[in-house]
Task: inverse folding
């Protein structure tokens, strides 16, 4: 489902120095597989998700999703591809404040260019237990409810891949397990591959496959040194 | 969910700022609407003011002043010069009789409570029409009668302004500083239905009664001289029910009495020797069996011709009822004096409807008049068109430019408002981009937001503009006689909406470009 090969992403710092953020030799996720990518803050977890989602373009390397190499796509093609194939759950939920819960889900459907499926939007809200809150705006919802709306929105277009960026980081402990279970169960139901990044060992402990971003970087640097040597 | 709704939700999020921005656009649009509508109504009213007749004949001088003074009853700083009454008779029974269908004398220079008081004949409302040949109607009473010299009728607006009702009397006052009050009372016998013309705010009194006032017996100019000298006759005429028959009737009598002797046109005196229009066909089509009617055979002195046409009658064209002396007047009104007065009578102008059945004569009439030293013939419509095109048109253009500038400035307000909100909205735009919205879509949302604000402002402005017109309508009507209705729509208003959309697209482009260039990754992280 997801394949990364020799993906490199660097940032030029204000002092002119180069910050090596991503250096991934190889990274694969099978269809329907759920993995956790761990790493300390600032190690490039979000950048990795941005590159997979096509929000950022890697400096080099290839990324395939469902057989499509998104690194060869134009920006507009990546936008459309992202809308259709990728769901994204943010750490801060990122619901649009002017829209109701239902409209936030519908808005995601709008960008695929396909007809908006209001019934599916309602079904998803019901699935996350918010059918009675569909007319409420984000400010009228608790943080746990907001994240559940964000999950429904991420699944609105029947994506092949769900990217979750610290989805429980801003949620109280009581709700963390619920939200995490909701993400995992809905992904299972929809046969969606899940890449969840977190720095929380508690969250990671619930997944069968856990990767560490620093190890990808270290492995790549070792290989680089071997090449040079 | 359409992009319109997305844009609308953005506007709702900043409801107060959006409402104020749209309102500023609305004020500009209201100004444009007001300028357009009021100008058009004034333009229409001015152009329709001279309908019902083709020519205004008055003393030599400024054609425009003649039209403004006689057709629009404007109180000019400089009184118009006069023409002798005998010249009017050239139109009723003299050289020009076959070139005209109707000729109505008017004397201006008086008013009552700010409303112009015009001396004229009943033919003003019996024979002349207004606006597409509509006949004058009365909401109360009737037209004044030729044989009732001290009767008057009043326009609809003037009736409201002066409070005069049928049966009440008034005394006209000479316009201008030091204007004296005439010592004759005119009785209102009719109130005209609104016409949308300057006549609405005027009072029309029987010219016969007007001339019976001692200060007017030599015409308005004599009155002016009296004013200048400070003299005032005390022996004013009094209203009489047994007054002389006035012009219209007199004309008819004169025409009936005269003989339809076939004479060459030059002899008939329509035009001087060598000026006869060479139009046999027209001559054949003339009324009275293709021949000119009972024109004075002399073709020479107008006074003499008039005297010949109406022996024993007032040379004014007003014929005294019965013996011609039964009007209640003072000792001045003896027979000889009457003739002296009548010979000395003067007019401000003659409103002439040319003979449509004799177009060649009619077309030559202005030239024939203008060649002489006595008077000038003016096409009021032409003067008004020129006046509007050269003066009012430019004023309107300037007002319109100012109003459009207000709209442009208000539209720049939209730019500023949306642009200022962009820093707060970068995160939202980044979220939409992360959900799959393309750069063009987010750019479109911002442009639609700009368009919605402009359209909202435009609709508010159109409603506000027409509301303003409706609210000010009565005041405009009172001040100018021009009737302005709230829903006087102009076709050009239809251009406002596409114009606003264009303007909104232009001013929305800058913030839309900011949205287009939003760095999604950075903005998402900035919002966390």
Result:
């Amino acid at each position: 489902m997801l394949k990364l090969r020799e993906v490199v992403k660097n940032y030029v710092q204000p002092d002119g120095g180069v910050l090596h953020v991503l250096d991934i030799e190889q990274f694969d996720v099978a269809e329907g597989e759920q993995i956790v990518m761990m790493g300390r803050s600032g190690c490039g977890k979000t950048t990795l998700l941005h590159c997979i989602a096509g929000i950022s373009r890697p400096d080099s390397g290839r990324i395939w999703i469902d057989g499509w190499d998104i690194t060869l796509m134009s920006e507009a093609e990546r936008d459309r591809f992202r809308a259709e194939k990728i769901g994204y759950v943010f750490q801060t939920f990122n619901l649009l404040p002017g829209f109701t819960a239902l409209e936030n889900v519908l808005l995601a459907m709008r960008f695929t260019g396909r007809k908006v499926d209001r019934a599916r939007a309602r079904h998803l809200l019901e699935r996350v237990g918010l059918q009675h809150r569909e007319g409420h705006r984000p400010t009228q919802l608790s943080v746990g409810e907001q994240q559940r709306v964000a999950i429904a929105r991420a699944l609105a277009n029947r994506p092949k891949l769900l990217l979750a960026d610290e989805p429980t980081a801003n949620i109280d402990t009581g709700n963390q397990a619920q939200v995490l279970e909701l993400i995992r169960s809905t992904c299972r139901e929809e046969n969606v591959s899940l890449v969840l990044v977190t720095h929380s060992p508690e969250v990671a402990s619930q997944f069968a496959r856990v990767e560490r971003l620093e190890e990808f970087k270290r492995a790549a640097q070792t290989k680089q040194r071997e090449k040079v040597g | 969910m359409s992009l319109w709704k997305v844009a609308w939700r953005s506007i709702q999020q900043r409801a107060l700022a959006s409402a104020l921005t749209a309102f500023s656009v609305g004020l500009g649009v209201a100004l444009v609407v007001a300028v357009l509508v009021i100008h058009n109504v004034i333009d229409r009213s001015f152009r329709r003011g001279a309908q019902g007749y083709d020519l205004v004949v008055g003393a030599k001088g400024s054609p425009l002043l003649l039209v403004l003074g006689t057709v629009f009853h404007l109180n000019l700083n400089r009184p118009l010069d006069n023409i002798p009454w005998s010249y009017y008779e050239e139109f009723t029974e003299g050289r020009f009789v076959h070139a005209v269908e109707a000729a109505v004398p008017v004397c201006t220079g008086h008013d009552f409570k700010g409303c112009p008081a015009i001396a004229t004949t009943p033919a003003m409302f019996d024979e002349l029409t207004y606006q597409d040949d509509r006949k004058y109607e009365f909401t109360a009473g009737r037209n004044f009668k030729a044989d009732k010299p001290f009767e008057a009728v009043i326009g609809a607006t003037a009736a409201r302004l002066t409070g005069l009702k049928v049966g009440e009397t008034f005394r006209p006052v000479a316009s201008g500083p030091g204007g004296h009050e005439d010592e004759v009372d005119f009785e209102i016998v009719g109130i005209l239905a609104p016409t949308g013309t300057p006549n609405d705010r005027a009072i029309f009194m029987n010219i016969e009664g007007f001339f019976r006032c001692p200060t007017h017996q030599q015409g308005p100019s004599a009155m002016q001289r009296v004013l200048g000298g400070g003299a005032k006759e005390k022996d004013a005429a009094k209203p009489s029910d047994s007054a002389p028959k006035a012009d219209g009737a007199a004309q008819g009598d004169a025409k009936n009495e005269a003989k339809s002797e076939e004479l060459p046109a030059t002899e008939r005196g329509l035009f001087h020797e060598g000026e006869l229009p060479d139009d046999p066909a027209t001559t054949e089509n003339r009324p009275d069996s293709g021949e000119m009617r009972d024109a004075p055979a002399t073709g020479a002195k107008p006074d003499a011709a008039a005297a010949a046409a109406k022996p024993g009658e007032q040379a004014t064209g007003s014929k005294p009822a019965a013996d011609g002396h039964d009007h209640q007047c003072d000792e001045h009104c003896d027979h000889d004096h009457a003739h002296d007065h009548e010979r000395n009578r003067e007019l401000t102008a003659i409103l002439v409807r040319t003979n449509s059945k004799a177009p060649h004569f009619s077309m030559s009439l202005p030239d024939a008049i203008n060649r002489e030293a006595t008077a000038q013939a003016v096409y009021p419509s032409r003067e008004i068109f020129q006046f509007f095109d050269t003066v009012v048109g430019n004023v309107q253009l300037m007002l319109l430019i100012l109003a459009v500038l207000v709209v442009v400035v208000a539209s720049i307000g939209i730019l500023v408002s949306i642009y200022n909100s962009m820093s707060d909205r970068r995160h939202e735009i980044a979220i939409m981009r992360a959900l799959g919205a393309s750069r063009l879509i987010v750019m479109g949302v911002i442009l639609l937001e700009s368009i919605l604000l402009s359209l909202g402002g435009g609709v508010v402005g159109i409603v506000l503009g027409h509301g303003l017109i409706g609210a000010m309508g009565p005041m405009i009507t009172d001040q100018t006689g021009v009737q302005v209705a709230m829903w006087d729509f102009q076709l050009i208003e239809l251009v406002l909406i596409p114009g606003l959309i264009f303007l909104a697209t232009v001013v929305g482009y800058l913030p839309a470009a900011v949205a287009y260039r939003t760095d999604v990754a950075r903005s998402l992280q900035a919002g966390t």
Notes: Residues 173-190 of chain A form the longest helix (18 residues). The domain at 2-228 of chain A is CATH 3.40.50.300 (Rossmann fold). The two ends of chain A are 35 Å apart (CA to CA).
